[in-house]
Structure formats: C-alpha cells, structure tokens
Amino acid sequence: MSPAKRLRTRMAETGLVHIMAAHSPLSAILAEQAGFDGLWASGFELSALYGLADMSLISMTQHLDMLRAIAGRTTLPIVADIDTGYGNAINVIHAIDEYARAGASAVVIEDKSFPKVTSLVAGGRQELVRVEEFQGKIEAAIATRQDPDFIVIARTEALIAGLGEAEALHRAQAYAEAGADMILIHSKRKDPSEIVSFSRAWTGSVPLVIVPNAYPDLDAARVKELGNIRMMIYGNYGIRACATAMQEVFRQILADGGVQNVHKDILPVEEIFRLQKMHEVKEAEVRFLR
Ligand code: SPV
Ligand code: MG
Predict the structure, then answer these.
(1) Catalytic amino acids?
(2) Which InterPro entries would you find in this protein's record (predicted)?
(3) Which end of the chain is less crowded, N or C, counting CB atoms within 10 A of the terminal residue's CB?
(4) Closest Cα to residue 42, out of 146, 129, 123, 119?
(5) Residue 162 CB-half CA count within 13 A
(6) What's the confidence (pLDDT) of residue 16?
C-alpha cells in the first residue's frame, strides 16, 4: 500500500491522525519511533533549521532536498507544507509533480500571497490572494496529481489575517468546491475559541485539519468531540525541543568548563548508533569487507 493510501486508511480507521513536524531525517526517525501516523515537512521548522525566518526565504529546492532525505529514512507518510505553492497555479503544477516524486503523500497550500509571512508572529502583515485565484491553484493541484490517494489540503489564513469567521467559512467552502480533500483552518489566538467555533459552523463536505501551536488546550480528546477534524499537525515542537536541549547543554558546558555535567541529560552515543543503524553497518562489514 502506498504511504498516501496508508494515511487515508488510518484516517478512516481512527478518525484522527497525529502528524509530527520533521525538519531532518533524524527528527523523522524519532517521530516514527514515537508512534506518530505521519510527518509534517514544516516550512517553519526547516526555515528555523537554516536560522531563517519563515518568510518564503527557503527555496523549493531546499525543501524538496530535505523531504527526499526524510522520505529515504522513514516509512511514514509525509504531509508537505508547500506554503503558497511557490507562486501562481502554474508554479503549483510544477510543485505538485516535484513533491509527489520526492515522496510526499499530501500537500498543504495556503491562501496567502507570495512571499508569505509566518502566521503566528505578532503584527505579521497577512495578505491573502483572491478566492478565485486560490481556487485555480487548488484545481491545478488536483488536476496534476497522478495518484488519486495523494491528499490536497487547502489552508485558509482568513482568521490569521483577522478577516473573521464568515470570510474563513466562505473561503473554506470555495476551496472545497474547487476539489480540496481537506481544509486546514489556522488561528493564532491563545485559546481555541476561533477553531472550536469554526468547526461547529463548518457544514462543508470535507474534513478539517488543525495545527494547535498557539492553543495547546485543544487536545485530541476535545478534537474528537468536535467530530469533523481528522488531522492534528504538531507544527513546531521538534525544532523547539531541539533548540531547548541545545541551548541548555551548550550553556552548561561553557559554564562548567567541561562536559562533566551534561552526560546525564543527553542521549548516550550508543543510542545515536542505534538510530544510525550501526548494527547493519557492522553486519555488512563482516559480510563484505575482505
Ligand atoms: C509550519 O509548521 O510551517 C506551519 C505551522 O505552517 S505555523 O508555523 O503555525 O504556521
Ligand atoms: Mg508553514
């Protein structure tokens, strides 16, 4: 079964899939071993990995290269965050081809104008494209996919842009009519009220996706009660967890003038060997090195 088919099947069987952000093959391996249903090839995480803001500064080639590297090291389906689709509907056609070939099972395309501004930053300039223009991008994505199981998720940033629920519902409905398989609704409020209200008001034919970065109170139990959200994307936890650990350990080493106090807080190198599958390398050495 293809990863895209597995993702669709898992969603149908469990009613809610849990997708963890990955910014590297190692983070993807850790997410797979933790038991997540899939991976989020997050634009925010990869931008942060490069030390850059999530403002369309990372190229499609950079994102694709990382996605390919991730796909080569896990079996999990990958949901690719392709931001605005790198331009207009023509760029989307090219992007869908490339991302499918690189190993993505799904894409999320957002209705912001290019270059995008990261969603959660305070006072971000959020400009959306016209509804008809974005419908064209969704239609282009659907027309381009070769595998009917490949999932096209339309993301509306209407709430992020402060345009209100009526506009968000109007856009989501228009994108569903254009053929989107799912609608991602995002909010930067610190509480889940906007998302809960949108979910209750949504009467569209396709299910919803959320990214509960800003409103952590909306956990899986509450999401299941809402009934029409089928995918939760954990959007920036991998990179924040790494940065937390590195910040602490790096400071401690300099403060202590050595590494004597950090070993107890970090993985032993043997665990990294396990993640690198060193045992397979050793077996191959025995077998083939003459
Ligand atoms: C990402 O992880 O790149 C996202 C989620 O798009 S957010 O940063 O919350 O917009
Ligand atoms: Mg993103």
Answers:
(1) 54
(2) ICL/PEPM, Pyrv/PenolPyrv_kinase-like_dom, Pyrv_kinase-like_dom_sf
(3) C
(4) 119
(5) 7
(6) 98
CB distance 5 to 11 below 8 Å: no
Distance 22 CA to ligand 1 centre (A): 12
Residues 6+ apart with CB under 8 A from 227: 199
CA pair distance 216, 203, nearest whole angstrom:
25
Residue nearest to atom 5 of ligand 1 (CA): 235
- Work out the pLDDT band at 65, boundaries 50, 70, 90: very high
H or E stretch covering 184: strand 182-185
Ligand 1 pocket, Cβ-based, cut-off 6 angstroms: 21, 42-45, 54, 81, 118-120, 211, 213, 235-236
For the CA of 213, the closest atom of ligand 1 is: 9
Would you state the pLDDT for residue 92?
A: 98
Q: Is 114 exposed, middle or buried (0-12, 13-18, 19+ CB in 10 A)?
A: middle
pLDDT of res. 133? 98
- For CA atoms 46, 73, 281, 242, the dihedral sign is positive
119 C-alpha to ligand 1 centroid (Å):
7
Hey, what domains does the chain have and what are their CATH numbers? Answer: 3-236 (3.20.20.60), 243-288 (no CATH)
